[in-house]
Specification:
Chain A contains 31 helices and 36 strands. Chain A folds into four domains: about 20-135, Ubiquitin-like (UB roll) (Roll), CATH 3.10.20.740; about 300-375 and about 580-700 and about 705-745, Rossmann fold (3-Layer(aba) Sandwich), CATH 3.40.50; about 375-570, Dimethylsulfoxide Reductase, domain 2; about 810-940, Barwin-like endoglucanases, CATH 2.40.40.20. In chain A, the strands form ten sheets. Chain A has a seven-stranded mixed β-sheet with strand order 13-12-27-26-25-14-15, covered by helices on one side. In chain A, helix 11 runs parallel beside helix 20 and helix 23 (about 625-630) packs across helix 25. With about 950 residues, chain A is α/β, with parallel strands linked by helices. Chain B is mostly helical and about 80 residues long. In chain B, helix 1 (about 5-15) packs across helix 2 (about 25-35) and helix 1 packs across helix 3 (about 40-50). The relative contact order of chain B is 0.21. Classes of the chains: A alpha/beta (about 950), B mainly alpha (about 80). At the A-B interface, helix 16 and helix 23 of A face helix 1, helix 2 and helix 3 of B. Bound molecules: iron/sulfur cluster (SF4) (3 copies) and FE2/S2 (inorganic) cluster. FE2/S2 (inorganic) cluster binds near residues 66 and 67 of chain A. One iron/sulfur cluster binds near residues 248, 250, 282 and 416 of chain A.
């Protein structure tokens, strides 16, 4: 089994860029292809395979191996078919005696410098060099193997996931080109010339290099030179299934390559439309957590959280949970219980949990962890445009001329999309970054931001208002577009507001901390672009004015006509894999699936009929309200599926007190997480490899999750929810998640056309998918906005109530890094810890110096909410007065210091900018040699968020 | 429910709608938001706080709560 062999057409699809069809003859067969197509690809389409080594269809042709030579009638020499474009009337021969001889000689040279250990090579049976030796009929190597060679070149095993064995390298440079063209990191080079040329990841090892371990080079390598360690250990896989990454909102499609029920490797799926064959270190390599020894495989219960856990059967655990819920409802009322759905679970599972709460608990107390990240998007975009979702597909970025990245760090949090974006930037698109931190995109290989608006945290709305002010007052608005597509009275009101000098860059610039001229120039660049697109992330939404900022972004896009076609739009970059899906599925306490309010009698009637119970017409409690209600004694039981609220929710102390006040907390998860410490019932969860279902990514793309191994604990999450519902006297009847999707489709207008069969057929579907859009909707709001006319909303900038003071002089912001994911429950249980063994505090050299802090010191961070200790990383990425940390490791307790200022509209707690005090608590010289220090600093480069070596961190923490 | 928290949240919602030039629209916006997003316990809590003098509530919030009280009042407690 080999993906490259099955799918590789040699050179990339150029159909989007090439001209009229041309007809030519290849080995006597007439072929018609778009002009500009390579001879190699045309031959492949005609069923003729031309031998090749340096070409692959994910990379631009390079023409170095000379194996793909052909003869063209009337032309001299033997052109390489991978680099020669088709022309009308060409007569091409791919097989002649002369060609066979040339190819054999070329192979002979390769093989004379290649170890002949095929039988014990990990690529045996899946090696293009081996295949080509067979294809060209190589029978002898006249040069012998005694000449000068590279067979003794040492292996580089530094990367935790793949090996670099230069003795097997044929210097085809596919890896170098993959790193440049696909990933955009430029970590690899060809060093030396001729016989001496070799591939090198800089002066040191892979781990010390700029490499971010995306795996693109490994995927591209035709030999065993770059090879997954899992293949070394387990051998070649023998079957596979297409599934979807369970980490981030890009939702990359993968082929899970299996041996029995063991995953040998995850390979990015070439036809996956979210990722187009690319991946990042998490989805590609960090799947080992799924079978980690910490997985809980047996349900457990206990009477109080002081007691130890007691293992029980599923039946006992479910019966206990159900009787507790009923007891509590009997004593404290129907509204005293609720549930939390997970953005890590499938659409079908989220749907079932909210159905359980609404139909079996009989209230609307259901919420999702998207509360702490993306509900302002739902509110803001629904209010202005009419739909709670991003407007574009990821491909759209390839048509953008100006890209705005706001409060997002795509290279770390959405790496595969970032690679696409960087590709577009290398092609000449301009970039505006709006972020307090100098994120990597500001200045990365071959891309540099035209403007970096390095704002003070908390001033997002001010920035958007200032930009809109410039557009309006300098006459750059697309007035015709606005007149045709937006509500005019609202627009006029908004225009009067935004014109006010209080919104000018000159007034707001000092608040934002950025010169007025920069704001003006950035506004002009955005407004005058042919296509300008905005991508934003948690820096926008996890903030007290999150909803307001999202509306301000939508205002700006409508004002400049940047909605409704490829290349433009307003695009949230979702944090977790299924944030979009969990929101779509009715996880909010005021909305049934499809974002329909519970107060709407028609919608309630529809669901009531289908579910056989009346639906409560009042909104339920949101997560923070549940905690408040727990503290005042009116909320007593919570079912939490796949979410670690005690760690990921801002203001940990408040959450812990609330959980302690409850009488029954049911946690369903893969591992004993922080929340489980407060739980009375633990139901083992199933990983994405153990169940069927769908995820919906940030571009509204619904993709299949496929079960490749049985659930380790016996039940998939949806089955556990069904068991709980049944024990509560509300049996649900599904044999397979496809039946749940059928119910969702029957009840949700934007999903009417979605079925598992159709997803299988099309690969994936972007909702809305219904009679109007039977194959889905890549770009929304094309002719008109979903709400009819777009609505401008007045977005007054309100300074956040938290202020710096003498006691708390710094602003703390939080975020995530490439190699770790959210609270780290999965990634911490993989070798990704090689890049990020602990959370660190980034601070500017001025702030460090003023406090006597040196790089690597352990520093105490204190805010009004609490204190914690983190290791310092002194870096110019930060601006003075602002510090930054991640929250991947529970022991660092970064969320202990975040406070609870929340978004006014949707109660998303503000984790991005509480003020904190940073003071050096103690430090000492670190152990370790100079070389390990060097290693640390290079690892830091690699993961950008800063890291320490695994070993050192363990020794140093006291 | 912690009254101080409810007051803070209500004022923040008020601060958003205060930008609306027409005061009646602003008040309707604020009250409508509470009706759509606040669970009955929270609405009951803020109305009880209003009845107790409404300390800390912004003038816009006080006025909006008074004017739209009937809409905001939850139905009788259900078991
Ligand atoms: S490492 Fe693999 S892809 Fe890179 S040059 Fe060598 S053989 Fe080619
Ligand atoms: S794994 Fe490293 S070297 Fe290979 S393509 Fe990715 S970033 Fe480049
Ligand atoms: S973590 Fe995100 S970018 Fe990385 S492979 Fe998974 S879905 Fe793709
Ligand atoms: S495949 Fe064409 S030159 Fe290598």
């Amino acid at each position: 089994m080999d993906s490259n062999k099955i799918l590789d057409r040699g050179t990339p699809d150029r159909s989007a860029r090439v001209g009229a069809p041309v007809t030519l003859q290849i080995d006597g067969v007439a072929v018609t292809v778009p002009a500009g197509t390579s001879l190699m690809r045309a031959a492949h389409d005609a069923g003729v395979k031309v031998p090749k080594l340096c070409a692959t269809d994910s990379l631009d042709a390079f023409g170095s191996c000379r194996l793909c030579l052909v003869e063209v009638e009337g032309r001299r020499g033997y052109p390489a078919s991978c680099t020669t474009p088709c022309e009308p009337g060409m007569k091409v021969k791919t097989q002649t005696d002369k060609l066979a001889k040339l190819r054999r000689s070329t192979m002979e040279l390769y093989i004379s410098d290649h170890p002949l250990d095929c039988l014990t090579c990990p690529a045996n049976g899946n090696c293009e060099l081996q295949d080509m030796a067979g294809v060209v009929g190589l029978r002898e190597v006249r040069y012998g193997y005694q000449g000068e060679n590279h067979l003794a070149a040492p292996k580089d095993q530094s990367n935790p996931y793949f090996t670099f064995d230069p003795s097997k390298c044929i210097v085809c440079s596919r890896c170098v080109r993959a790193c440049e063209e696909i990933q955009g990191t430029f970590a690899l080079t060809v060093q030396g010339r001729g016989f001496d040329s070799k591939i090198a990841p800089g002066p040191g090892s892979f781990l010390e290099s700029e490499c971010v371990s995306c795996g693109a080079c490994v995927q591209a390598c035709p030999t065993a030179t770059l090879m997954e360690k899992s293949v070394y250990d387990q051998g070649q896989p023998d079957h596979s299934a297409i599934t979807t990454c369970a980490y981030c909102g890009v939702g990359c499609s993968f082929r899970a390559e299996m041996k029995g029920d063991q995953v040998v490797r995850m390979v990015p799926h070439k036809d996956g439309r979210a990722n187009r064959g690319h991946s990042c270190v998490k989805g590609r390599f960090a799947f080992g957590y799924a079978t980690h020894k910490d997985r809980i495989k047996q349900p457990m219960i206990r009477a109080s959280i002081q007691e130890p856990w007691r293992e029980v059967t599923w039946e006992q655990a479910i019966a206990h949970a159900a009787s507790e819920i009923r007891r509590i409802q009997g004593k404290y009322g129907r509204g005293s219980v609720g549930g939390i759905t997970s953005s890590r679970c499938t659409n079908e599972e989220t749907y079932l949990v909210q159905k359980l709460v609404r139909a079996a608990f009989g209230n609307n107390n259901v919420d999702t962890c998207a509360r702490v990240c993306h509900s302002p998007t739902g509110y803001g975009l629904k209010t202005t445009l009419g739909e709670s979702a991003g407007t574009q597909d990821f491909d759209s970025v390839m048509h953008a001329d100006v890209v705005v990245v706001m409060g997002a760090n795509p290279t770390d949090a959405h790496p595969v999309f970032a690679s696409r974006m960087k590709k577009r930037l290398r092609e000449g698109a301009q970039l505006i970054v709006i972020d307090p931190r100098k994120i990597d995109l500001v200045d990365s290989p071959h891309t540099r931001a035209a403007f970096h608006i390095q704002l003070q945290p908390g001033t997002n709305v001010a920035v958007m208002n200032a930009l809109a002010h410039v557009v309006v007052t300098e006459g750059l608005a697309k007035v015709d577009y606005v007149r045709a597509r937006c509500e005019l009275p609202e627009f006029d009101k908004w225009q009067a507001f935004i014109r006010d000098p209080k919104n000018s860059p000159e007034v707001l610039g000092p608040v934002i901390g950025v010169p007025a001229t920069t704001l003006r120039d950035a506004a002009r660049l955005y407004a005058t672009a042919r296509n300008a697109a905005i991508y934003y992330g948690l820096g926008v939404t996890e903030h007290s004015q999150g909803s307001t900022t999202v509306m301000a972004i939508a205002n700006l896009a409508m004002l400049t006509g940047n909605l409704g076609r490829p290349g433009v739009g307003v695009n949230p970059l979702r944090g977790q894999n299924n944030v979009q899906g969990s929101c779509d599925m009715g996880s909010f306490p005021h909305e049934l699936p499809g974002y329909r309010h519970v107060s709407d009698p028609t919608v309630r009637e529809l669901f009531g009929q289908s579910w056989g119970v009346p639906i409560d017409d009042e909104p339920g409690l949101r997560i923070p309200n549940m905690f408040d209600a727990a503290l005042d004694g009116s909320f007593k039981a919570l079912y939490v599926q796949g979410e670690d609220i005690a760690q990921s929710d801002p203001d940990t102390h408040h959450v812990q007190a609330a959980l302690t006040a409850m009488e029954c907390v049911i946690v369903q998860d893969l591992f004993i997480n922080e929340t489980a410490k407060y739980a009375h019932v633990f139901l083992p969860g199933a990983s994405f490899l153990e169940k069927d279902g769908t995820f919906t990514n940030a571009e509204r793309r619904i993709s299949r999750v496929r079960r490749v191994m049985p659930p380790l604990a016996g039940l998939a999450d949806w089955e556990a929810t069904m068991a709980l519902a049944k024990a509560l006297g509300y049996p649900m009847h599904y044999d397979h998640p496809s039946q749940i999707m059928a119910e969702i489709a029957a009840l949700t207008p934007t999903f009417t056309g979605v079925t598992y069969d159709k997803i299988d057929q099309l690969g994936s579907i972007q909702w809305p998918c219904n009679d109007q859009a039977p194959t889905g909707t890549p770009v929304m709001h094309v002719d008109q906005f979903v709400r009819g006319k777009g609505r401008f909303v007045i977005t007054e900038y309100v300074a956040t109530p938290e202020r710096t003071s003498r006691k708390f002089p710094l602003i703390l912001t939080t975020g995530r890094i490439l190699s770790q994911y959210n609270v780290g429950a999965q990634t911490r249980r993989t070798a990704n810890t090689a890049w990020h063994a602990a959370d660190v505090l980034e601070l500017h050299p001025h702030d460090a110096e003023a406090r006597g802090i040196r790089d690597g010191d352990r520093v105490e961070v204190e805010s009004r909410a609490g204190k914690t200790v983190l290791r310092a990383e002194v870096t110019e990425r930060m601006q003075p007065g602002v510090v930054y940390t991640t929250f991947h490791h529970p022991e660092s307790g970064a969320n202990v210091v975040t406070t609870e200022n929340s978004d006014w509209a949707t109660i998303v707690r503000n984790t991005r900018s509480p003020r904190c005090r940073s003071a050096r608590c103690w430090c000492r010289r670190r152990r370790g040699s100079r070389s390990s220090r060097r290693l640390r600093s290079s690892r830091r480069r690699c993961c950008r968020g800063g890291s320490d070596g695994r070993a050192e961190a363990g020794q140093d923490v006291q | 429910m912690d009254a101080q928290k409810l007051v803070k949240m209500c004022n923040e919602i008020g601060a958003f709608f205060a930008a609306e030039p027409d005061k009646a629209t602003a008040m309707a916006g604020l009250a409508g938001h509470l009706k759509r997003f606040w669970e009955p316990r929270m609405r009951r809590g803020i109305l009880a706080h209003l009845d107790g003098g409404g300390a800390g509530l912004s003038p816009l919030a006080v006025e909006a709560l008074r004017m739209h009280r009937a809409m905001l009042e939850p139905k009788a407690v259900r078991s």
